């Protein structure tokens, strides 16, 4: 059996070593394809793979067609919007994610971006503090919960909205549950996005919603760029010079944001919320273990596509 690690944005070496150990201990072979750039290289590498570990790498019908022996794809991470689930099911391929394994890393970066924004991008001028500010956590999943935990240390007043998580679960963490996204944005000085990119959420962070934020509002996005209605956010930030947008997922309109919103917009060049050795080790080794469990025992825990 051959397990391919196909990561255009590579894991830390220590994580790859850990993945190799798991795979080889199970008697399988590990192949590594990093920084491949072009899809053609991925198509070639998947040809004899029985299992694939990926990050944000695109697994579409063409890749699945090329992977004739493929049985399982594990997205080492949370969001699996990069995998065509229907095509995987049609190809009889199991798709899993590794929920929770990289969520602390993403949550810590959200605070890195928040501090950078309230300290005026570290430009030496007098900024403000997070303590006492109202923080809105948009979606209370694994990352949202870590954000709440860290926000307590900062002394923030914490609110959350999640369409699927029961109010009792949110409030058990000492977080105020609000009834709608609208209420969250109207209430909070800072909103941190932790929603997945789905048909319902794409473009949903728009003028009407973000426009509800109080004066000096800060939007932090470590989720997905697709959830932002970029044209409307640009329009809103043109109308309101007090709003700031910080992200580690570069918008399609990055150049426009840069040109128009100097000092109140920042994006990292690459998505880097989960780019820590710890997150790579946790998610990578979990992915390797899930593959071994699936191939040896048929374990389908964390399967995200239909059979
Ligand atoms: C995730 O969905 O797990 C995060 O967005 C991290 O993605 P990455 O593995 O591409 O950094």
Automatic annotation (TrEMBL):
Q: State if Kinase is listed as a keyword.
A: no
User: InterPro entries under this entry?
Assistant: D-isomer_2_OHA_DH_cat_dom, D-isomer_DH_NAD-bd, NAD(P)-bd_dom_sf
Q: Where is the D-isomer specific 2-hydroxyacid dehydrogenase catalytic domain?
A: 23-305
Q: Which GO terms describe its molecular function?
A: NAD binding; oxidoreductase activity, acting on the CH-OH group of donors, NAD or NADP as acceptor
Q: Where is the D-isomer specific 2-hydroxyacid dehydrogenase NAD-binding domain?
A: 123-250
Name the domain of life this protein comes from: Bacteria
Quote any Pfam family the record assigns. 2-Hacid_dh
Q: Where is the signal peptide?
A: none
Q: Check the record and name the SUPFAM superfamilies matching this protein.
A: Formate/glycerate dehydrogenase catalytic domain-like, NAD(P)-binding Rossmann-fold domains
Arranged from A to Z, the UniProt key words for this protein are: Oxidoreductase
Spell out the family assignment given in the record's similarity comment.
Belongs to the D-isomer specific 2-hydroxyacid dehydrogenase family.
Q: What is this protein called?
A: 3-phosphoglycerate dehydrogenase
Q: Which organism is it from?
A: Candidatus Bacteroides merdavium
Taxonomic lineage per UniProt?
Bacteria, Pseudomonadati, Bacteroidota, Bacteroidia, Bacteroidales
């Amino acid at each position: 059996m051959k397990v391919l690690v196909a990561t255009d944005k590579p894991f830390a070496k220590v994580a790859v070593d850990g993945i190799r150990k798991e795979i080889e201990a199970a008697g399988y072979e590990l192949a590594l394809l990093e920084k491949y750039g072009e899809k053609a290289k991925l198509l070639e590498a998947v040809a004899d793979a029985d299992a694939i570990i990926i990050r944000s790498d695109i697994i579409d019908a063409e890749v699945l067609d090329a992977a004739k022996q493929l049985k399982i794809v594990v997205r080492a991470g949370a969001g699996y919007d990069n995998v065509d689930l229907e095509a995987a099911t049609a190809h009889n391929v199991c798709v899993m994610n590794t929920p929770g394994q990289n969520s602390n890393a993403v949550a810590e970066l959200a605070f890195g971006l928040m501090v950078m924004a309230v300290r005026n991008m570290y430009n030496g001028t007098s900024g403000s503090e997070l303590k006492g500010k109202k923080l809105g956590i948009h979606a209370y999943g694994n990352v949202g919960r870590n954000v709440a935990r860290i926000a307590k240390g900062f002394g923030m007043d914490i609110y959350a909205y999640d369409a699927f998580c029961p109010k009792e679960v949110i409030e058990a963490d000492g977080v105020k549950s609000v009834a709608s996204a609208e209420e969250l944005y109207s209430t909070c000085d800072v909103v941190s996005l932790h929603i997945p990119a789905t048909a319902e959420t794409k473009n949903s962070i728009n003028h009407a919603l973000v426009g509800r934020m109080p004066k000096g509002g800060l939007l932090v996005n470590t989720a997905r760029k697709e959830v932002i209605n970029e044209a409307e956010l640009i329009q809103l930030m043109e109308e309101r010079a007090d709003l700031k947008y910080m992200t580690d997922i570069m918008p399609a309109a990055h150049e426009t944001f840069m040109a128009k919103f100097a000092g109140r917009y920042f994006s990292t060049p690459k998505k880097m919320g989960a780019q820590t050795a710890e997150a790579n080790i946790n998610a990578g080794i979990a992915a390797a273990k899930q593959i071994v469990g699936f191939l040896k025992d048929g374990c389908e825990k964390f399967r995200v596509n239909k059979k």
